[in-house]
Design a protein that fits this description.
CATH class of chain A: Mainly Alpha
Helix content of chain B: 25-40%
Helix content of chain A: over 70%
Largest interface: A-B, 21 and 30 residues
CATH superfamily of chain A: MetI-like
Radius of gyration of chain B: 24 Å
Strand content of chain B: 25-35%
Number of domains of chain A: 1
Radius of gyration of chain A: 21 Å
InterPro entries (chain A): AA_ABC_Transporter_Permease, MetI-like, MetI-like_sf
Shape of chain B: elongated
Structural class of chain B: alpha/beta
Family (chain A): Belongs to the binding-protein-dependent transport system permease family. CysTW subfamily.
Mean pLDDT of chain A: 91
Oligomer: heterodimer
Number of strands of chain A: 0
Bound molecules: adenosine-5'-triphosphate, magnesium ion
Number of helices of chain A: 11
Strand order of the largest sheet of chain B: 6-7-8-3-9-10
Pfam family, one (chain A): BPD_transp_1
Low-confidence stretches of chain A: none
Subcellular location (chain A): Cell membrane
Order of helices and strands of chain A: HHHHHHHHHHH
Membrane topology (chain A): Multi-pass membrane protein
């Protein structure tokens, strides 16, 4: 233990704070992932079914969704944080803190994930969709039991990708006052020259990414049958 | 005759986009009788798939009506149409099985729309697996099966809801000849044992020949010729039909071979190269012997092929007849009277007349 204390003189004094920051990062990531995952999935599915070659072609709706996704994807996250500050304040009551950070995280992640979901689901063979239609499947059936099921390995893959990018965003949000490991690294490590704090924050984030990746790979293998 | 199970009236399908208009199907009317096996042949792009897809309204016709199983498909609402589709099975060139489900689950999928209980569904899946000869593959995934096996699963799945009709769109086109034969045998069995009406779309006349009772030939969105299999094979009217038949009988290759032979290259002045084809009864007649006895004409058979269509022999001969040329017209008339189709071939040309 004394070796660790020597190596990380600052971190050893603030372990509870590091633990707290880790929990905050997890909290922001998990809650944002659930909300953005759900909404992004819906938008992604809409992009697939309303497409010209989808099961319910609807060019007007498709084109609106498509443009919205493009626009929101183009906004750099730091700018998005500032731009939607009023919305955040109205929704959460405050503009800073973990919970407040969830609003921009969700808004920033939905379009990214929606596009990923779209890319995953359009891989599903058109012929399989057609076979289901020929069997008398309803559109709901086709979405739930064909698209989502056949596209599952790809969906897991893009979800992992999104989750990893979300972890990155929480760190960035942390830098502008949302708490979490990003905040810790900036406020203590960077601004007070406590390099060991930066390193520890980075390693914890890397471990999170690694776990997400490993679980994702395992699930992908489990669901792939071709 | 009872009323047809499939009745297409003046079906037209036009695809339009900003740049172009494609008339995929042009004013096609087609009736298929209950219990029939109806073949539709044509080259790629002829509109076969588009036409067959109007039979379950996967393709909405631009105009015209489709009455299938006694229902006018165009008058059904979405949920009624889904109901109707459950009684119209369909199989595809690329099988279109769900990769994420086992074979048993693939076959079980359409049963979710039936009234059957869990145990009944399991039994049904088992029976269907047995019917298509895949009892031991229940827990395999499609990726572990050969093409022929996948198509068997396709057939089992299509039959799950006891359809009255089975639509087959190029169902054997991705398979090798032997597997094609096996799948066609299975379809024949499905037709005979279960009484299911089959519509078979293909670009191979050989497949039609193997199991169809009726055939329609499609070109550029239209049916250019149609009729009972034997009639089409014995008296094809259109060049396209003849091409298909000749390809199937491998007459093309035979003729090319024949034309390279010295006897044909140096065809004598008192000789002619002919294609004789006959269906059924005429094969009992000693044609060649008669020609010699009655007209003093000798025949040199360069190629001969007899095959059975619906248990009726169909023969094709390429012969050189030599003798007194002035007696040829009378000899041909005699042959034609016996039901033989006589075609004089150009010894140098490249087409089968
Ligand atoms: N959804 C579509 N949109 C536009 N054009 C189409 C569409 N489907 C088919 N076509 C066109 O309609 C014509 C007929 O196509 P179809 O698929 O019915 O032919 P086919 O006889 O089945 O050919 P193949 O043997 O290649 O399957 C083709 O020119 C094709 O390009
Ligand atoms: Mg086709």
């Amino acid at each position: 233990m004394s070796f660790i204390n020597q190596l990380m003189p600052n971190v050893s004094l603030i372990w509870p704070q590091v633990w707290q920051a880790t929990l905050e990062t997890l909290y922001m990531t998990v809650v944002s992932a659930i909300i953005a995952g759900f909404l992004g999935l819906i938008v992604g599915i809409c992009l697939v079914v309303f497409d010209e070659s989808g099961i319910v072609p609807h060019p007007a709706t498709y084109s609106i969704l498509d443009k919205l996704v493009n626009i929101f994807r183009s906004i750099p996250f730091v700018i998005l944080l500032a731009v939607i500050y009023p919305v955040t304040k109205a929704l959460v009551g405050t503009g800073i803190g973990n919970t407040a950070a969830i609003v921009p995280l969700v808004v920033g992640t939905i379009p990214f994930y929606a596009r990923q979901v779209q890319n995953a689901l359009v891989q599903v063979d058109r012929g399989i969709i057609e076979a289901a239609q020929a069997m008398g499947a309803s559109n709901w059936d086709i979405i739930l039991r064909v698209y989502l099921r056949e596209g599952l390995p790809d969906l897991i893959r893009v979800s992992v990708l999104t989750l990893i990018s979300l972890i990155g965003l929480t760190a960035m949000a942390g830098a502008v006052g949302a708490g979490g490991l990003g905040n810790l690294a900036i406020s203590l490590g960077y601004q007070r020259f406590q390099n060991d704090v930066v390193w520890v924050a980075m390693i914890i984030i890397l471990i999170m990414v690694f776990i997400v990746q490993a679980v994702g790979d395992w699930l992908t293998r489990l669901t792939t049958h071709n | 005759m009872s009323e047809p199970i499939i009745d297409l009236e003046h079906i037209t399908v036009t695809f339009r986009d900003k740049k172009s208009t494609v008339h995929a199907v042009k004013d096609v009317s087609l009736q298929v009788e209950r219990g029939d096996v109806y073949g539709i042949v044509g080259y790629s792009g002829a509109g076969k798939s588009t036409l067959v897809r109007t039979m379950n309204y996967l393709q909405l016709p631009t105009s015209g009506t489709a009455v299938v199983n006694g229902q006018t498909l165009g008058k059904l609402n979405t949920s009624q149409l889904r109901q109707a589709r459950r009684k119209i099975g369909m199989i595809f060139q690329h099988f279109n099985l769900m990769n994420s489900r086992t074979i048993a689950d693939n076959i079980d999928y359409p049963l979710r729309y039936s009234q059957l209980t869990r145990p009944q569904r399991e039994k049904k899946v088992k029976d269907l697996l047995h019917l298509v000869g895949l009892d031991d593959k229940a827990d395999a995934y499609p990726a572990q099966l050969s093409g022929g096996q996948k198509q068997r699963v396709g057939i089992a799945r299509a039959l799950a809801n006891d359809p009255k009709i089975l639509l087959c769109d190029e169902a054997t086109s991705a398979l090798d000849p032997k597997t094609t034969g096996e799948i066609l045998d299975l379809l024949k069995q499905v037709n005979q044992d279960l009484g299911i009406t089959i519509v078979l779309i293909t670009h191979e006349m050989a497949a039609v020949k193997a199991i169809c009772h009726h055939v329609a030939v499609m070109e550029e969105g239209e049916i250019v010729e149609r009729g009972p299999l034997l009639d089409i094979f014995s008296k094809p009217q259109k060049q396209l039909t003849k091409d298909f038949i000749n390809t199937a009988a491998q007459l093309d290759t035979a003729l090319a071979e024949v034309r390279r032979q010295p006897a044909v290259i140096n065809l004598a002045a008192n000789a002619q190269l002919l294609h004789l084809s006959y269906v059924g009864a005429s094969t009992d007649q000693p044609l060649i012997a008669d020609l010699y006895q009655q007209f003093g004409i000798t025949a040199n058979i360069l190629y001969g092929n007899v095959e059975f269509l619906q248990d009726t022999p169909v023969g094709n001969l390429i012969v050189i007849l030599s003798g007194d040329i002035s007696k040829f017209p009378a000899a041909f008339a005699q042959l034609r009277q016996e039901g033989v189709t006589v075609t004089v071939l150009d010894p140098k040309g490249d087409a089968v007349a």
